[in-house]
């Protein structure tokens, strides 16, 4: 995937275009990872707005009303995500087509989540592109839009077009975008917060990660207080240490040692912010025998010492 913006320090504007009968789960899986990324990064990495075509509220399939921040025609940004969900055929109107084509000139990336690909395709924004849609609609989508290269996968990015197949896939797609813009470390923190499969090791291939890498992360998570040698972790995954290191570099962009250290420091930061434990006790619970060693690693990773972080509460 390409980055949304050339400057990783720039705040990314993410707008979600809602239609009546949208999936509240899909919406939550889109914006909650962005909120968490802001918290972990301790800055506004992402901003988001809920839009509608006319600026009126949108009502989800479960009856939840969401107030629109603005009309689509009034906005521009880095990414626009069309989210019609259940009533997508009713929303594929001439007016929606015109609005989406105009928005394509104001947004860097156009995306369709769940059945949003149908609206993009109707507007001619997916011609000659690879795309996916909720799999229940894939056959009809393929027949209706022969100029779109439809794929039975969970999410696709082709240039500045992104599509995903449903609510859970929306979460995975946002994680992938976070990793592309902000790096695998922040992605892993967000995944860990929401107990996603890639962080727990369950259903590892769901997140596009091999089972052995997912299993290795799960073993690391289970042994933060008493860290295991990487060789021992590799054996529990059924791989050699060299093979595991190669796989983790390829899939996560970092060595097992770096990932393990990050997980232990995430644990330490959580204890600093959420408990009154001493730094010495936090060090022990995070696999550091020496509080000074924890403080050095903590400062290198987060740019602040544990005591300073606790005093600011950020």
UniProtKB/TrEMBL annotation:
It holds the Pfam family DJ-1_PfpI. Keywords: DNA-binding, Transcription, Transcription regulation. InterPro entries: Class_I_gatase-like (IPR029062), DJ-1/PfpI (IPR002818), Homeodomain-like_sf (IPR009057), HTH_AraC (IPR018060), HTH_AraC-typ_CS (IPR018062), INH-QAR (IPR052158). Residues 214-312 form the HTH araC/xylS-type domain. This is Helix-turn-helix domain-containing protein. It comes from Aliisedimentitalea scapharcae.
